[in-house]
Amino acid sequence: MGTRVTVVGIGADGWAGLAPGARALMEGAEVVLGGRRHLAMLPDVPGQRRETWPSPLRDGLPELLERCAGRRVVALASGDPLVSGIATTLVDLLGADAVEVVPALSSVALARARLRWPAESAEVLTLVGRDPRIVTRSLAPGSRLIVLSSDGSTPAEVAALLTAAGYGASRLTVLGDLGAAAESRIDGRADSWGDRAAPDLNVVAVELAGPGAPSRGFTAGLPEDAFEHDGQITKRDVRASALARLAPLPRQLLWDVGAGSGSVAIEWMRAHAACRAVAIESRADRAARIARNAASLGVPGLEVVTGHAPAALKGLERPHAIFVGGGATEDGLLEACWTALRPGGRLVAHGVTLETETVLAGRYARHGGELARIHVEHAAPIGSFTGWTPSRGITQWAATKEDS
User: Fold this and answer.
1) Is the pLDDT of residue 385 over 50?
2) Opening angle at CA 243, ends 240 and 245, nearest 5
3) What is the DSSP-derived secondary structure letter of residue 34?
4) Do 229 and 341 belong to one domain?
5) Rounded to 5 degrees, what are φ and ψ at 279?
6) How far, in Å, CA of 195 to CA of 187, rounded?
7) Does residue 43 surpass a pLDDT of 60?
8) In this structure, are 202 and 255 located in the same domain?
9) Cα separation of 279 and 2, whole Å?
């Protein structure tokens, strides 16, 4: 676009809190971009043009930036512009070389300072423009969260989510208007928070206290009862084996084909906040169930596609990993998956029938990898004694597509 932008962080104390260098940048700009609240903090500068952010932001930014081409442009952002701020979007649109960032103290740094929390002791989550249920993924007793709120309703939403997940004893501290003369603090427990009002500009600090139930753990192999399902679910021991071979990595994409309850896709996304997944399921009732499971387990961003594979795979972004939990005998399915898989990607397919086993053995002969049969037995009563009850054996083929 030919536009260069300097993004200046500004605190709740406004113009008075800016360093001399930041003030000089602002006064020397031909165009200043920002929200109404930020622009209102500035003194008048003769001849300077000021523009508010378009709505919707991402769609309207290219045209706005094009109009600013060739001018000295400063954009205003709250605190550190790279902490859930506009600078990230501008770098995506213009490239890193076209954006200079002059940060102020972030609300995260101010919150840690008020609470005396070391940086390494707390996970930072942003709910700005995001589904608040992502908080559920980070629940662990004794952990700390710093949550960037969308608005004044966010603390009550977080408190309700914590309470519903068994973390009602967690302590919440809501810090409002950090750095301003009107700075405020509200403390309380999640289970007694109710609909207590909070300033629109707030950060929620959470000290988690809860049961540490296995259904909220971080390791692969959540118990089956952590998911809503109709029996169509990859059992936990076999699921853990599949995920070990799928090897979730940040920013990588998984296809969960024949997803059933969505358990593999959900655990892939729970491995890291930047992991992405698409669950493909032919039955509409199961697809709806997958979405509910994803929301309840803290990964509401899971994309669910209702359709029959391989036709339903057309047009999807190429994945880094694929799990085929069912339907491997479907004509053309494994071939379509292998073709779509990125170089270096991992494919894991399961089968329980002789017919599927034959197909997987053929793929193993063609592409190599690992072919295994997994048998799991659980202790169960036999009269007054205890014996082993075997589960149905699973044939697992796992292979990596060679880098080209």
Assistant:
1) yes
2) 115
3) E
4) yes
5) -100, 125
6) 14
7) yes
8) no
9) 40
pTM of the complete model: 0.84
Q: What is the CATH number of the domain that holds 181?
A: 3.30.950.10
Distance (Å) of CA 317 to CA 280, 283, 357:
13, 22, 28
pLDDT (tens digit per residue) in 328-370: 999 999 999 999 999 999 999 999 999 999 999 999 999 999 9
For 110, the token pair is 């101010």
Q: Please give the Cα distance from 320 to 343 (Å, whole number).
A: 8
Question: CA-to-CA distance for 265 and 267, rounded, in angstroms?
Answer: 6
| Residues whose CB falls within 8 Å of the CB of residue 162, separated by 6 or more in sequence, listed in order | 135, 139, 168, 170, 190, 191, 206, 208, 210
User: Residue 78 in contact with residue 10, Cβ under 8 Å?
Assistant: yes
Give the domain-ending residue among 207, 237, 254: 207
Percent of the chain with pLDDT over 90: 88
Please compute, for residue 220, the number of CA atoms within 13 A of its CA located in the half-sphere on the CB side.
20
For the chain, the domain total comes to 3
| Residue 213: inside a domain | no
Same domain? 323 vs 174: no
- pLDDT reading at 213 higher than 60: no
| Domain limits for position 227 | 218-400
